[in-house]
Specification:
The protein contains 6 helices and 5 strands. With about 270 residues, the protein is α/β, with parallel strands linked by helices. Strands 3-2-4-1-5 form a 5-stranded mixed sheet. The two termini are about 20 Å apart. About 25% of the residues are buried.
Length: about 270
């Protein structure tokens, strides 16, 4: 079954050993979901499963998973499950990073608001995803270092651009003072000396301001380069998640086809 729209992401835990291997963990989850009637198409109900150092896309991102115990949520949501029992366990660094990347990617892809990332226990009476996975933790992983750096760089670019504009205005004003100084009456030696000194001082100030402008504009170019690099890195991470999801979905489909063919050969179907 295909979703018509996607408005939510639901976070689960698997209540299986956190450090178990990928194939064994997925087989165990698939078996449990088949037994409980959740794997209607042979796949686990979750779209993504994040192990201690591995991630698998276990169903097509556009299909409905029976994961939330609530049909209204199931039909509009992506399910992400973390391997472990997080009433006792804590996320590994890999799990934190992957959860953040997956959430950010699909929030962007489906235009999902932060408030629509839900914990399973916020939908039905359950302990899932455990006491150690909170909305505060979700806030932390969604607010990535990459996003923070991009935001900070953009803010600095705005600030530096404003500084450069102000400096240009100051230089224009100082240049006007130089011209005005040159045009004043200088009928006395003392006035000439004073005005000459003022003109020279103003010229020096103009020169310093212009040097600051050059330095600021150079730094502005460097900041824009850093911003481009940061945005490129974020985009590459999004592409990697998309490619991994497609590869895992293809492999899952192959395994299902081979399994069905073997069942047919051995007379199980």
């Amino acid at each position: 079954m295909t979703r018509k729209k996607t408005t939510n992401i639901v976070v689960h835990h698997t209540v299986t050993p956190q450090d178990h291997d990928k194939l064994g963990t997925i087989a165990r989850i698939r078996s449990a979901h088949k037994k409980n009637g959740l794997a209607y198409d042979g796949n686990p109900a979750y779209h993504f499963i994040i192990g201690h150092n591995w991630t698998v896309a276990t169903r097509d991102i556009k299909t409905i998973g029976y994961h939330a115990g609530n049909w209204e949520i199931n039909k509009v949501s992506v399910a992400v499950a973390l391997v472990g029992n997080f009433n006792n366990d804590h996320l590994t660094q890999y799990q934190e990073d992957e959860l953040g990347r997956i959430l950010r990617h699909w929030m962007k892809e489906f235009n999902i608001a932060r408030k629509n990332i839900l914990l399973h226990k916020e939908i039905k009476a359950t302990a899932c995803p455990g006491a150690n996975i909170t909305q505060g933790l979700i806030d932390m992983v969604v607010s990535s270092k990459e996003n923070d750096m991009i935001t900070a760089l953009k803010a600095r670019i705005v600030e530096f651009t404003a500084q450069v504009k102000r400096l240009h205005i100051e230089v224009k004003k100082l240049t006007g003072e130089v011209v005005a100084g040159k045009g004043r009456e200088m009928d006395k030696d003392t006035q000439i000396i004073v005005l000459a000194n003022q003109v020279e001082a103003t010229r020096e100030e103009v020169k310093r301001k212009e040097e600051v402008i050059v330095a600021k504009e150079k730094e502005l170019l460097e900041l824009r380069g850093s911003l481009d690099d940061a945005e490129q890195t974020a985009e590459e991470n999004d592409d990697r998640i998309r490619e991994e999801a497609a590869d895992e979905a293809t492999e899952e489909l192959k395994q299902n086809i081979l399994g069905n063919f073997w069942d047919w050969l051995t007379g199980k179907r």
